[in-house]
Design brief:
The complex is a heterodimer of chains A (220) and B (755).
Chain A lengths: L7 E4 L9 H6 L12 E4 L8 E4 L8 H5 L26 H5 L6 E3 L4 E3 L5 H4 L6 H5 L5 E4 L1 H7 L3 E9 L2 E12 L7 E2 L34
Parallel strand pairs in A: 1-8, 7-9
Antiparallel strand pairs in A: 1-6, 2-3, 4-5, 7-8
Chain B lengths: L7 H8 L19 E6 L8 E7 L2 E7 L12 H5 L13 E4 L7 E4 L1 H19 L4 E5 L5 H15 L4 E3 L6 H11 L16 E5 L3 H4 L3 H10 L3 E5 L12 E3 L6 H14 L5 H7 E2 L1 H8 L4 H8 L3 H13 L3 E5 L1 H4 L4 H15 L8 E4 L18 E2 L3 E2 L3 H11 L13 H9 L5 E5 L3 H4 L3 H10 L2 E6 L11 E4 L8 E4 L4 E5 L12 H11 L11 H12 L11 H7 L2 E2 L43 E2 L18 E6 L15 H6 L4 E4 L1 H7 L6 E5 L4 E8 L7 E5 L28 E7 L15
Helix pairs in contact in B: 3-19, 4-19, 4-20, 5-14, 8-11, 8-12, 8-14, 16-18
The chains are: A alpha/beta (220), B alpha/beta (755).
Amino acid sequence: MPVPETLEFFIDPNRCIGCQSCVQACAECGTHKGRSMIQLDTIDRGHSTQTVPVVCMHCHSPTCAEVCPADAIKKTEDGVVQSARKPRCIACSNCVVACPFGIPKMMSELDLMMKCNMCYERTSEGKKPMCATVCPSGALYFGTREEIANLRPMSRPINTFQFGNQTITTKVNMMVPKTRQAEHLDVTSAMNDAPKGKTLSLDVLGTAMYVPAESAEVRP
Amino acid sequence: MATLPVEPDRIIEQFGPHLKYMAGDQLDASAEPEKLVKTHCCFCGQQCGIQLKVKDNQVIGFEPWEEFPFNRGMLCPKGVKRYLQGAHPDRLLTAYRRDPSAPGGFSPMPYDEAIRRVGDEIQRLQSTYGNDSVGILSGASLTTEKTYLMGKFARVCLKTKYIDYNGRLCMVSAGAANKKAFGIDRTTNPWADMIGAEVIWVAGSNVAECSPITTNYLWQAREHGAKIIIQDPRITPIARTCSLFLPVKPGRDAAVFAGVLQFMIEKDWIDHDFIDKHTVGFDKVAEYCSGWTLKRTAEVSGVSEKALQQAAEYWGQAKSSFLLHARGIEHHSNGVNNALGTINMVLASGRLGRRDSGYGTIVGQANGQGGREHGQKCDQLPGLRDISNPEHRKYIASVWKVPEESIPGPGVDAVEMFRKIDAGEIKGLLSICFNPKVSLPDNSWITRCLEKLEFYVGIDFFLNDTARHADIVLPGSLMEEDEGTVTQVEGRVIKHNKAVDCPGEARQDWRVIQDIAKALGRTHGMTFGSPREIFEELRVASKGGISDYSGITYEKIEQQYGVFWPCPSTDQNGNPIDHKGTERLFEPGSWNPIARGAGPFYFPDGKARFNVAEYRAPVDDADDQYPLLLTTGRVISQFLSGTQTRRIGPLVDQYPEPRIELHPQLAQKLGIADGDWATAESRRGTTTLRAMVVTTIRPDTIFIPYHWAGPKSANQLTVAAQDPTSKIPQYKVCAARLRKADGPPEYVKHLEPQQ
């Protein structure tokens, strides 16, 4: 059974507390038992406790699959980009290098690329992915658009990302403040912004996310 | 003499802590569980619902339990990996006796023989030195049934006054403050009430790491407009995006509360109507606070005047609010006053007893709430009754079917018990669910005390650091091997369900205790056949008390996803009723057995008490010799003294060894770089650990997490100063100094990170 179209994945880094529940629970899903596929990035621990959980964004047009010389990476009809197929994967790591989000992992002991497949064994049976079920802060959420709109009145989901000249749209959404007008996240531009005075973290999503709309300063 | 039988390394070699990872059915994705057991996590006071997967009498994994209303499937990493404590190579499968000739210092022995030996030794000590020569240390990670049994075992079977529990290191400051102010010791509202509150003030709680599930409640409240104020010497993950951060200097919390209340009084942001109708003692508090100008408060507390004013504006002008605190303000020699300071701010605001406004302490242990209610505290009898109160004694004596005069009087707190051991008054010790060699302050002194014991029996499922001193070790049970209730952070009584049988000769703890009673030939009241039987007696024992469980049944707990106490079985006129439990305390018009209709609070006049919450400087404050302040706490992947979590591989990997957190300004001054070995010293002890240089801590403060043992233990440094009322140790501040280490510490050569 495909993953129901109405159920979507939402990432909200503003809520993340770096607890690693997602990392620990990921290894408990039957599709990749014992191996954690999720990445929890610590941005700059010397200056902040900011962490960001990164699951596969399940691109509408997956770069990993596009660059695969062996045609080993498939997207199922429900939009989930799967791990490489064992008989085809040649362990060349093209996908690992090409993915703009840094998702695929080369399992050298298996000669196989594995990646977050949205806990396909669970989501294709109507369950939630492990990470989004256990996440105690709601930084990872799996549910309907209506639910997220009710639960998060101060933010909204976007799924368009800009990497230089490459525009990527994804099945997975990133929550951004409603007070921001951005229609996409310009990911590489953040690399140019040195943290000011080394007192703040590298803040790719902007600060003051939860300033109420009427008083918020909207940056151009 | 309870000295270590052999060198610690040899004990560790045999008994661990060793790391366990997923293997066999725990790793095999195709292993089908025979059953899913709905139960709860064994660790912290949040008590998340979880389903354990069971196959061949082994817990092989978990499945989230999304229907349980408190956590809805959410778990922290400890909950996710808790199942790995099952089938662990370090598990005690037999009884052991101290044996210096054995490789690990202990030889296995038949369970029955061990029980006989324990009975003989207790008999010998008590007939030689008197009943009070044997003490009991118990714990709040036990089910309420077990904690009730421990209290009864001490008073009825051993007839010793010396019993206390590890909640002494945890809940007692909050408990004492709650009793003084409200007459009842429980969080006032269910957590769901936070959503809709305008302001939530979190004082001294590293919510993200110590009570992770509460995070989502805070964030949901924020989504609905709440401002979040965090008061902490460190910018913990919950503070990173808060509305207002108060970087309080360790040990100065009472000053913050007095200063903020003073500003509220000056601006008249107080609820006169509520204060007049429902409280007493405001004038004295106002008089005390009048000395706390913002300027003085800022000077003492290390929080800027601007931030203090902002906090007072948020709190003073809100229409609805929640105040939460935890060990950060409670682990002080001024811990009760700190908690009372928060309560004064709450009472002055008049925001209590409502759907959108409440107050609570965030409990640390699984049964931090229930474990402090039913008689394992040194001065307490079941139902939050007082062991010095003649009526209370009379009632409990009738339930226990013993003469009232046979129940001993009050004993002393856990730390004082060690002073009694030191002085030779207590010569025998029985411990369960308590690892004081890691968890008590100034723990090299604890070790010296343990060595003085004539006889020590430890009950545990792993050989914890303290039990290494034992003459006899009895193999006890894990949470998943028994059933029974605990009362979680909200005051909700929930039930752990049995998933697997005890392995080997290990026994459920209540059986072990009753076996000892039998060996002593003192079986009166110690012949329960099941936890349910214990609970049924507990219901009767708690009836009419403040924490009344008489209307709670195992069935009701299951049907309602828990029952909030008080839950009486009869109404005000003594007629039987089917009470659903009390979600929210102090609601207007509510009835309680103390006020009997006079008002919502648990005093005869129904009114809450303001208490002057005086600021007192910490004992062992910073000085020229020891210019820094050491504070201690938790990391998310470890729990308490690490007896369980330092054996779970994936959790140890997450944060393998303690590190000393310090600010870059301090690091630069001392010439310490991130990752360097650094030596922290106090007047009591020294530890060399790696430095972690972060801007998220006050420059005058260093932080060390306390979960590790031996040379890595933070409690080698902490001070055994205690609050005069609650007797909680002052873990959260002592004077310290720090220097770059001469080189790697000696222990790296022979100890693994978790050992």
